[in-house]
Specification:
By secondary structure, the protein is mostly helical. The chain is about 45% helix and about 10% strand.
């Protein structure tokens, strides 16, 4: 066994010490040679359950895909994952009851402590915070630049240039970022409420005499153990056991892959992105105008300064739809997504792409064209 007390990484350490301790945990603590292969959401598979087989960002369709982890539980996971977990839980309890094994981490039962989180709810809360900062702080610093909605959009572009790569505004950007946990996939169930950042506690569990059994038993029932949270179980979508549980729910059996799970249980985030962007700017602008109804302007006429006060006008939905057609939002969306992934295109290439996008027969085809181009430029995206 390794000297687990050397694994003392936490979020409270200095940058240098944090790097060293995290590297020690990553390279030396998990018993790779003897335990079942884990899932590593920190370094290699941080998008597991958040992207489909085409590497497109997705979110779970919440209606008809989730199941409570027990009758009185407020915790949910994907339906067939719950069935597989209950199989594992019963298997474990039977072995404990007959004293054929000792409890892992002193757990007599594998009671769920944390599970699925709603991507819809998390994004809504997140974008509300972005909007509050944008309207009540950032825009106030630039309020003299804003008279119309066009001015507002110009300042928004400036905001994105300064913040967009670390604070995405699109649903796609949010889901692909570390701001969105992998638990939104509904594939993970945690049996303890541990802190993922505290390496010492994790190392102690990895050194538990029953960990090897626990990891192998989890694998037998179609689960990964999370390398950075040894109390966290995530569905191995390509495993035979997990697919046996998925077939009754309409998933095609195709061991070794996620099969058609993402197609049947998810929707691609990009199809909501422009509606989200339009709502963010429309609501933010009108909120700004309500709070700041007047703009003071100074003009120089015959060497004299003339001060005028003008009233900002709110934008109606009718005017929004009339004056800002789909082509406007396609172009803005392309620029926003480029900023979010820290990529660039020449103005000529952007004009050519938008021209092709606007020639598509449907909105979905246009969005697909932009998304596929962005995907080729997104060096940070890993599956």
């Amino acid at each position: 066994m390794i000297n687990f007390r050397s694994a003392n990484g936490s979020n409270d350490l200095s940058a240098k010490l944090s790097f060293e301790t995290r590297k020690f945990y990553k390279d030396s603590v998990y018993p790779e040679q003897t335990a079942a292969s884990p899932v590593d959401f920190w370094y290699s598979t941080h998008l597991y359950g958040k992207v489909d087989r085409q590497s497109d960002a997705v979110y779970l369709l919440e209606d008809g895909t989730l199941k409570p982890l027990n009758a009185d539980s407020a915790l949910f996971a994907v339906d067939f994952v719950v069935d597989a977990f209950n199989d594992f839980r019963q298997y474990y309890r039977d072995l404990i009851k007959t004293r054929r094994i000792l409890p892992y981490a002193n757990l007599e039962d594998l009671r769920p402590a944390r599970a699925w989180r709603s991507a819809e709810q998390l994004y809504s809360q997140y974008i509300e915070g972005i909007q509050n900062f944008f309207v009540n702080s950032y825009m106030l610093q630039h309020k003299q630049e804003i008279e119309t909605f066009d001015d507002f959009v110009s300042v928004f572009k400036k905001y994105m240039q300064q913040n967009g790569s670390i604070r995405p505004v699109t649903r796609t950007g949010f889901v692909l970022s570390n701001l969105c946990p992998t638990s939104v996939g509904g594939l993970t169930i945690e049996i303890m409420s541990g802190d993922h950042s505290e390496d010492l506690k994790k190392a102690e569990l990895l050194n538990d005499q029953m960990f090897l059994f626990f990891s192998k038993a989890a694998e037998l029932h179609g689960f990964f153990v999370n390398k950075n949270a040894p109390w966290s179980l995530t569905a191995r979508l390509g495993s035979t056991k997990m697919q046996q549980r998925a077939v009754p729910y309409g998933i095609t059996k195709e061991p070794g892959s996620a099969s058609d799970f993402f197609e049947k249980y998810h929707t691609k985030t990009r199809f909501d992105d422009i509606d989200d962007l339009r709502s963010l700017l429309f609501d933010s602008y009108n909120s700004f105008v309500i709070s700041n109804p007047f703009i003071k302007q100074t003009e120089v006429c015959q060497s004299k300064s003339i001060h005028r006060v003008k009233k900002r006008k709110q934008l109606s939905k009718l005017a929004l739809n009339r004056n800002y057609p789909q082509s406007f939002w396609f172009e803005l969306y392309l620029n926003v997504r480029l900023i979010e992934i820290s990529a660039e295109m020449t103005e000529q290439d952007k004009i050519r792409l938008i021209k092709k996008v606007n020639s598509q027969l449907t909105f979905e085809q246009g969005i697909d064209m932009i998304a596929n181009k962005i995907k080729t430029l997104d060096t940070r995206r890993q599956t």
